[in-house]
Amino acid sequence: MTRTLDRRRTLHLGALLAAGLANGCDGEASSANAPAVSAAPAPVRAISALGRLEPEDGIYNVAGPSGMGSVIAELRVDKGDRVKRGQVIAVLDNVPSLTADVARLVAELDNAKRELTRNNELNTSKVISDSLHDERETHVRVVEAQLAHARAELERGYVRSPIDGRVLYVHAREGERVEQAGIVELGRTDHMFAIAEVYEDDIGRVRVGQRAQVRSPVLASALSGSVEWVHLRVAKQDALGTDPAARKDARIVEVEVRLDDSQPAAGLTNLQVEVEIAP
Description:
- The chain is α+β, with helices and mostly antiparallel strands.
- Among the domains are: 47-57 and 185-277, Elongation Factor Tu (Ef-tu), domain 3 (Beta Barrel), CATH 2.40.30; 95-156, Helix Hairpins (Orthogonal Bundle).
- 32% of the residues lie in helices and 29% in strands.
- The protein contains three helices and twelve strands; from the N terminus they run αββββααββββββββ.
- The chain has helices at 2-33, 95-124, 130-156; strands at 47-62, 72-75, 82-83, 88-92, 158-160, 165-170, 184-199, 211-215, 223-230, 235-236, 251-259, 272-277.
- The strands form two sheets. The protein has a six-stranded antiparallel beta barrel with strand order 1-7-11-9-8-12. Strands 2-4-5 form a three-stranded antiparallel β-sheet.
- β8 (211-215) and β9 form a beta hairpin.
- α2 packs antiparallel against α3 (130-156).
- The N and C termini lie far apart (83 Å).
């Protein structure tokens, strides 16, 4: 009887083991036949960069004529003034002497022309030689050239604005010598840009026409704009944020973003901003 009981236990355990193996095979088959679930694609992130605000074409440093340093006799503009192209910004101290040179040469040319006219009449009558007549003609041409040069030098004494824009800063005033910084800084503040310094690793994702947002604690709200130009050279980053872990030796490409509304940024040239370019 004991042998019969052991045999029944053995058969029962074998049946349980067989059932377990069958269930395992069925589970593996079900897993193999289940459809594969693909992972969702990662969202395309925006391109973030530090930058600065600038007028269109940057800042114009207007100086006096090249050569020896000039002294300002009269400054006709001040900070914040609007100027037109060709408007006189400053008058230099050499203008009076140059004006006198022009007046002297005008008188000399008038006299030379009168002599040439008189010599023409005498030459027709063969009273004077042809060589003397030629000498008078040459003298007239020389004085004309001297007068043209004097007038050009006089014009250089009046420093004019090269653009329609606004005076951003004054470097020199009446009585001061014009140094390397020039006389004034001008900018087209009616057309403002954000110059974003985009990391070279991200520049391949930037295209002309992409929309962008420009932010700063100074601005009441974010400014919108569009990418207008991607510069053609890689440079070292100039705009550095406050993050101590930020890359200080990063290589960047400047991207120009034209602002839709320049008015909020017109008085904030060189303000550091954060630029976010939509993907």
